[in-house]
Design a protein that fits this description.
The protein contains 3 helices and 5 strands, in the order ββββαβαα. With 114 residues, it is of the alpha+beta class. The relative contact order is 0.16. Bound molecules: coenzyme A.
């Protein structure tokens, strides 16, 4: 039996690679990457493959990722401009969002070797 067309996208946390991925019909369509700093999950990059752009997938991905952060009892730090923009449109995550500080960006750069 073939898979139904237009099945809902699936978001999964690939903890070992520090990122959430979004799958469309089983194919990876994009990701949002993070590093953990104590109880803070610092998001620094989101990308959707060109073939899947403009379908609202980044929004689905980030919404489910941030919901997972809440479920895990962690907090959000939006270094990624897309996540920062999403949070301005979705105030329901304001209570678990921390500001991006110079200390965090310095820590992140060291973690990423840049
Ligand atoms: C940004 C990106 C992830 C959006 O993916 P998408 O699935 O097409 O996005 P959606 O359809 O869910 O949302 C589109 C929204 O993203 C916003 N957006 C697009 N590029 C953005 C960027 N660089 N920074 C912040 N927000 C951005 C737009 O404002 C748009 O909002 P609107 O619907 O109010 O106009 C994708 O274009 C991409 O991978 N770009 C290259 C990498 C990148 O620039 N990443 C963001 C910074 S880390």
């Amino acid at each position: 039996m073939s898979r139904p067309a237009n099945a809902a996208p699936v978001v999964r946390n690939v903890d070992a690679r520090h990122r959430y991925e979004i799958l469309v019909d089983g194919e990876r369509a994009g990701l949002t990457a993070y590093r953990d700093r104590g109880d803070q999950r610092v998001f620094f990059h989101t990308e959707i493959d060109d073939a899947y752009a403009g379908q609202g997938l980044a929004s689905i991905l980030v919404e489910q990722a941030l919901t997972d952060v809440r479920a895990a009892g962690l907090r959000i730090v939006p270094v990624c401009p897309y996540v920062a923009g999403f949070l301005t449109r979705h105030q329901e995550f304001a209570d678990i969002t921390d500001p991006v500080t110079e200390e965090i960006t310095t820590w992140l750069d060291a973690r990423l070797g840049r």
